[in-house]
Each structure stands twice: as structure tokens, then as C-alpha cells.
Write a sequence for this structure.
């Protein structure tokens, strides 16, 4: 194998490794679940901070006055969205943010493969 072939093979191996890391990151993001913050109001956000599901229990409509219910809804929406965002950022750091504290070079359970150094 020529030095050029070895260089290309190392790049291809590195690319495959980083694609696998990206897939593992995306799969982990899909599994994010945030525990309900309140029994009366529940929400679910996707990894892009888009509200996917929202529910106010019928009991909450009589248990809270308008201002109290508005504050509860606002709090649940903000905190749930923030928890999802925090988990996405943590997973991004673990899988994709090479050189950052929290990056896990062994996140895939195999040695990390870096591209060859440019000379």
C-alpha cells in the first residue's frame, strides 16, 4: 500500500468513525425524556426546541385562577424546554465536541479515529 493509499484509508476510517458518532448522538437525542414537572400541566419539546405536545389537565382549570394557571403553564413550558436543551448540549459535547471538557473519546465503545495530520 502506498503512502497515499494509507492516507486515504485513514481519512475514510476517520470519516466512518465520525459518521457513527453523529448517528449515536442523533439516536441519543431521540431518546431524551424529561420527567413531568407538574401533574396539571405537561409539555414535550423536540431537540429543536419545538413544542410537540402540550396538555393541561381538566382539573387545573378549576384548581387555579387565570393568573396562577398562566404562571404554571409558563413555568412548565420554560423549564421543560430548558431541560431538553441542556440534555441536547450535554450529548453534543459528549459525542461531537472534540477537545471540549465532557467530550468522550470512547463514547462508541471503540477507539476514536482521527484524520491524518496534515504535514
Amino acid at each position: 500500500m502506498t503512502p497515499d493509499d494509507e492516507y486515504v484509508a485513514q481519512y475514510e476510517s476517520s470519516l466512518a468513525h465520525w459518521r457513527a458518532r453523529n448517528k449515536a448522538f442523533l439516536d441519543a437525542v431521540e431518546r431524551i425524556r424529561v420527567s413531568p414537572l407538574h401533574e396539571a400541566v405537561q409539555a414535550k419539546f423536540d431537540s429543536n426546541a419545538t413544542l410537540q405536545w402540550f396538555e393541561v389537565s381538566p382539573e387545573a382549570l378549576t384548581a387555579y385562577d387565570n393568573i396562577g394557571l398562566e404562571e404554571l403553564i409558563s413555568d412548565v413550558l420554560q423549564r421543560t424546554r430548558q431541560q431538553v436543551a441542556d440534555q441536547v448540549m450535554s450529548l453534543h459535547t459528549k459525542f461531537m465536541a472534540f477537545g471540549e471538557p465532557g467530550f468522550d473519546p470512547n463514547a462508541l465503545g471503540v477507539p476514536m479515529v482521527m484524520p491524518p495530520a496534515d504535514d
Q: What stands out?
A: The chain has a mean pLDDT of 93.
